[in-house]
Design brief:
Length: 347
């Protein structure tokens, strides 16, 4: 690992959405009570970040250092920072106020990169209550992919839907959340149906254990294929990342008393049709939005990954100076898995 960079401390700042990020030099922060200062080793791009820098994410305050994903090394701790010590490699939870328990408005008001500065910088001051130790078998770059996409997938599959051996899980696409969900579903013993518009991406899913592959660009009625595979019963869980354009097919493909986790809106916001209410009612479906999770959820996920030596899928690494190119790749939707920015040299 390289020695800590003490000066100058770089940050990429977005003055207003849609503008180019500006590189600035900042002083290294000092921790207040209950805080820690981390030397940022890596961050990763999420669809949330694309919405943010494009001005489509509500309630963002400007100017702002973007990006919520992170892995860093603690260089200083304030009083009351719990068990943390300098040198610990950690991940800061997506929501710095959500320690544990069910979602509450107060837990979700603040997000790194939205209301407070994120991790596209050399150093950041973080709330020590929601720090989690990075999995020991992962590099900093791998650990930096976990706080948003990884945790959203874990909460969807393991916490809310409680997938178990024999469950049938349908996963849309091969982005960061989708591939984490595939890996977690297989870890828990599920049968996975993966849908994508790309045979190349489906091949990647096959290598991760997907049991059934469906290219919806050739056969748009993927919901009918799910019903065929399940003998008309439907899936136990649909990992819904499409939004308005895919929700009705998800409802059709889910079994009675099944679960749809709404994680993304790739095809847009809005209600597909008022008739969606009837099948949700008649099938007794659970339709649940997933906005990442608590620090305790993140801690349990990291422990599970460590026990099973599970590694995230990384499509490409970019250096700090090429953050705009990393965002452009995410916008193109041609990636498979996660896109990482190595803030420090590769570790």
């Amino acid at each position: 690992m390289s020695a800590p960079r003490l000066t100058p401390a770089r940050a990429l700042v977005l003055e207003r959405p849609g503008e180019p990020m500006q590189r600035v030099t900042r002083a290294i922060p000092s921790p207040a009570r209950g805080q820690a200062v981390v030397r940022v080793l890596a961050t990763a791009v999420n669809f949330h970040d694309v919405l943010n820098v494009s001005g489509l994410q509500p309630n963002v305050t400007w100017p702002r250092v973007p990006f919520s994903d992170n892995c860093g090394e603690i260089i200083a701790v304030g009083e009351g920072a719990g068990p943390w010590r300098t040198g610990d490699r950690v991940i800061a939870n997506f929501f710095p106020d959500w320690v544990d328990g069910r979602p509450q408005p107060a837990y979700c008001d603040v997000v790194y990169g939205d209301q407070i500065d994120g991790f596209l910088q050399d150093f950041n001051v973080v709330d020590a209550r929601t720090l989690v130790r990075a999995p020991s078998h992962l590099s900093a770059a791998e650990s930096a992919t976990l706080a948003c996409a990884g945790l959203a997938a874990w909460r969807c599959v393991a916490v809310e839907a409680q997938v178990q051996t024999g469950s049938v899980v349908v996963i849309q696409g091969t982005g960061g959340v989708a591939l984490f969900a595939l890996q977690f579903a297989k870890l828990l013993g599920a049968e996975v149906i993966l849908i994508s518009s790309s045979d190349r991406k489906l091949d990647k899913g096959r290598g991760l254990g997907a049991d059934h592959l469906h290219n919806y660009s050739r056969e748009p009625a993927w919901d009918q294929r799910v019903l065929e595979i399940t003998g008309g019963r439907g899936a136990d869980l649909i990992v819904e990342v499409g939004g308005a354009g895919t929700l009705m097919r998800s409802i059709n493909a889910t079994r009675m008393d099944g679960h749809i986790s709404v994680i993304g809106v790739r095809t847009g916001f809005g209600v597909t049709t008022p008739m969606a209410v009837e099948p949700v009612l008649m099938k007794n479906l659970t339709l649940r939005g997933i906005t990442v999770g608590s620090a305790n959820d993140l801690r349990l996920m990291c422990r599970a990954m460590e026990l099973h030596q599970l590694r995230p899928v990384i499509d490409r690494h970019y250096p700090f100076e090429d953050a705009a190119a990393a965002i452009a790749l995410m916008q193109s939707q041609s990636h498979i898995g996660k896109i990482v920015i190595d803030v420090e040299s590769r570790t």
